[in-house]
Amino acid sequence: DKKITIAIDGFSSTGKSTVAKKLARELGYVYVDTGAMYRAVTLYMMRKVFVADGNFDREAIIRHLPFINLKFVFNNSLGYGEIYLNNENVEKEIRYLDVSKHVSQVAAIPEIRKMLVKQQQEMGKNKGIVMDGRDIGTVVFPGAELKIFMTASTEQRAKRRYDELKERGDNIEYEAVLKNVKDRDFLDSTREDSPLRKAVDAVEFDNSRMNLEEQFEKVLKLANDKI
Ligand code: C5P
């Protein structure tokens, strides 16, 4: 079998990563969550550079970039790689709403995108990869053999994210999650550098009315058609 590159893009909380992880496991491919990379950089900046109210100095952010080391370490029991920021496992901390609130502003900075895109391209250079994010099919791997663009209604997405956070024991309001999903969608699709959009050759699919198993079957079939 030949190995291919699979790019999965879409709005926040469309369930991209759940499907992508399952697909990667099934195919024996590497899975990379690029959102985790932007989140980890944001966490670093929140700790080192941000001042009160989440304001930040763009130049200071750029000066700190060389001190950020990101890596994914495969966790056998989870079946995918967890993200490490300068050797600290931050997989859990990067999912907090506080990080979600700032990540889209940080991710709009071209110097950061340039650094992370380079690392992502390096991770995918031997193919056999499933990568999810916002610009994978348009910028990171424009030549990917399979591109999927996932959508679902805003309310559905906010509900999913809310359930996930609740499940983890976060004390959080649905309205706050909904607002964050809307804010990120807006910032991610209107930024100047690599805005979120569907690649012309991406297969679009709305999973509002599909359960995980149905989504997985569909994606697996699309992949097998290309392999
Ligand atoms: O995928 P996730 O929701 O964890 O991504 C968090 C944020 O990281 C997005 O809202 C977006 O601002 C940014 N991101 C990006 N490009 C990617 C992946 C994520 O700008 N490829």
Question: Key features?
Answer:
single chain, 227 residues, alpha/beta, five-stranded parallel β-sheet, three-stranded antiparallel β-sheet, 8 strands, 17% strand, globular, binds cytidine-5'-monophosphate
Shape: globular
How is the main sheet built?
5 strands, parallel
What spatial order of strands do you see in the largest sheet?
Answer: 2-6-1-7-8
Bound molecules: cytidine-5'-monophosphate
Structural class: alpha/beta
State mean pLDDT (0 to 100 scale): 95
Q: Could you explain how this protein is built, in words?
A:
It catalyses: CMP + ATP = CDP + ADP; dCMP + ATP = dCDP + ADP. One of its GO terms (cellular component) is cytosol. Residues 6-224 form the Cytidylate kinase domain. The chain has 227 residues and is of the alpha/beta class. It is 48% helix and 17% strand. The protein is built from 9 helices and 8 strands. It has helices spanning 16-27, 34-48, 58-64, 97-107, 110-123, 136-140, 154-167, 174-190, 212-226, and strands at 5-10, 30-33, 70-75, 80-85, 88-89, 129-133, 146-151, 203-206. The protein has a 5-stranded parallel sheet. Strands 3-4-5 form a 3-stranded antiparallel sheet, covered by helices on one side. β4 (80-85) and β5 (88-89) form a beta hairpin. It is globular, with a radius of gyration of 17 Å. The mean pLDDT is 95. The chain binds cytidine-5'-monophosphate (C5P). Cytidine-5'-monophosphate binds next to α2, α4 and α8.
